[in-house]
Amino acid sequence: MRLRLVARADDENLPGFEPGAHVDIMTPSGLIRQYSLCGSADDTSAYEVCIKHDNATSRGGSASLCTQVSPGMELQISSPRNAFTLPEARRYSLVAGGIGITPLLPMLLRLQRNNAEWELHYYTREPEQAPFADMLRNSSYQEHVHFRRSLREGYPDCLNIPSPDTAIMLCGPDGFMNAVSSHAVAAGWRAEQIHTEYFRPAESSHSLMDQPFEVVLARSGQTIRVQAGQSIASALLAAGIEIDLACEQGMCGACIVPLLAGVGDHRDVVLTQEEQGGHIALCCSRSRTPSLTLDL
Ligand code: FES
Predict the structure, then answer these.
(1) What region holds the FAD-binding FR-type domain (predicted)?
(2) Residue 21 within any structural domain of the chain
């Protein structure tokens, strides 16, 4: 289902966003879900999101949007946030698996407008009926778009030979992204060239037992104990400290704050390796040192 969201006051524009951004939507079921903005980033008269109605995997949020939302209804959404921005590069290879096409659409519109060099590889079981397939096929940039049914038909040719000034923008189900990333890395691409957007938290691979630790709030000088099994966010909230939270699963970036000292045990899928040195997600990450100092 494709939703077009406008501000409550008709003539008002919505906050601007960059390609790759998502919003949180409070679904009628009460669950908050993240959806990539799939319309042009140059049009702030409305946000467009596309929702896959999948009874088998939906935990209720998407299903309630697909079945309980009707035209004219009011929905509460967050401002756009972006954990999947287009980096500077000479060339761009966009690779989508199924509904992972959504954040890549504003990217290709922006790249096309900027006369950048880009190509899209869209893997979808039904290329004839896939979301946005008609639009892509009938566009002025159709020669940049390549459809395939599955990775069994092969990886994008452009990934076979590494190119130092190309960025790979990858979005789709976890298994699909893992397979494409591994293929690219094995072909000689550097991991930093592969930019991904996960829609669900990545499988946790950390082996550290949850130990208690302290967080020091640099601005107030307060020290707060985080118990084993408690998140930094809940320890801060219990101490009456206001913080931003949305997904609480390490996926949206709402709770990220600057980390001034200590080493984080990062469990989010938002921060890049580079950013992890100076930031931490309060909802899910822990500490590898007895204490973390936060810019709060
Ligand atoms: S609240 Fe979404 S990453 Fe922490």
Answers:
(1) 1-87
(2) yes
Whole-number Å distance between alpha carbons of 250 and 28: 23
Report CA(118)–ligand 1 centroid distance (Å): 31
Which of 49, 81, 79 minimizes the C-alpha distance to 65? Answer: 49
Query: Could you read off the pLDDT of 110-165 as tens digits, one per residue?
Result: 999 999 999 999 999 888 889 999 999 999 999 999 999 888 889 999 999 999 99
Beta carbons of 283 and 245 less than 8 angstroms apart: yes
Q: Which residues line ligand 1 (CB under 6 A)?
A: 245-248, 250-255, 268, 270, 281, 283
Whose alpha carbon is nearest atom 3 of ligand 1?
250
Q: CA–CA separation, 60 vs 66, rounded Å?
A: 10
**What dihedral do alpha carbons 288, 289, 291, 296 form, nearest 10°?**
-50
pLDDT tier for residue 57 given thresholds of 50, 70 and 90: low
**Between 60 and 94, the higher pLDDT residue:** 94
Taking only the tens place, the pLDDT of each residue in 23-53 is 989 888 887 888 999 999 999 999 999 998 7
Last residue of a domain, one of 169, 197, 225: 197
Pocket test for ligand 1, best of 200, 279, 283, 286 (most atoms within 8 A of CB): 283
| Token pair belonging to 93 | 């290879």
Domain identity same for 76 and 97 = no
